[in-house]
Amino acid sequence: MPVSGRLPLDGGRLDAALAGGLLLAGCHEIYGPAAPGFALMLALASRRPGPILWISDGHTGGRGEDGRLYGLGIAELGGDPGQLWLVAAGGVLPMLRAAAEAQRCPALAAIVLESHGDARAIDLTVTRRLQLAAAANGLFTLLLRQGSPRPSAALTRWQAVAAATRHLAGGAPGLPRLALSLTRQRGGPSDITNLLEWNRDRRRFVAAGQSAGQLVPIGAAFARRAGQHGAAHPGAGLAAAGQRTAGPIAA
User: Fold this and answer.
1) d(C-alpha 41, C-alpha 140), whole Å
2) pLDDT for the residue numbered 241
3) Rg of the Cα trace of the chain?
4) Is 165 within 8 Å of 213 (Cβ atoms)?
5) Per-residue 3-state assignment (H helix, E strand, C coil) for 164-229
């Protein structure tokens, strides 16, 4: 039975370590190359009403528009592109100021903060403020980070990596997969890894078996900029075939 106020993940080791699932009224950190995909899946799996507010610091790490969210790719993960609001804050500090305002909005389903590089301004004090506001306002807050893990007051820290998916009949790829590691948890066990599949129709995670296959297409929501051939991520061409998600709002 799902625990009220928590998001079940695997129905097994991870949920047991998390006392029933990921606490929705909290701030959680995600590292790794599949962090954006995992964050989007978590926000969709929470099934909370309202839009998902995605605030980026506006930096791309030299990738240009590569990795930008695409509407068709979001739909392929089971989401509604119209319910994802994008904000390019123009820096880490403007991003944090926007987050402080957004965390007081009860109409939001979730807030995702996407930082690039080391982002040293996101320190222990900042993460404590994010966590306190998330708990006080009941807003699911996800913080995407790069570089080496730093001291943080977030409830959990995750490492998310794309995994191989099993083949279906005829050689078609199966459900998208992520290799997830719970590397830190305040007041609870950590160092737990599991392989999960994403079911877009049910908008939930399910535990996966350890079978070989081709790379998981979670990158469908994150495609290369228009005019370029190929895909920046596995499955990215799927999103590139559709109309681009409206550009982010400059904060």
Assistant:
1) 13
2) 26
3) 17
4) yes
5) EEEECHHHCECCCEEEEEEEEECCCCCCEEEEEEEECCCCEEEECCCCCEEECCHHHHEECCCCCC
Q: List, for the chain, all residue ranges whose pLDDT scores fall below the cut of 70.
A: 1-3, 60-68, 209-251
Domains along the chain with CATH numbers: 6-250 (3.40.50.300)
Distance CA 197, CA 200 (A): 10
pLDDT digits (tens, 9 = 90+) for 160-209: 999 988 877 777 778 889 999 999 999 999 999 999 999 989 999 988 86
Helix (H) or strand (E) holding 95: helix 92-102
Cα of first residue to Cα of last residue in the chain, in angstroms, is 41
3-class SS of residue 39 = helix
Alpha carbons within 13 A on the beta-carbon side of 18: 31
Q: Beta-carbon neighbour count of residue 68 at 10 Å?
A: 23
> Residue 206's CB: how many other CB atoms inside 10 A?
13
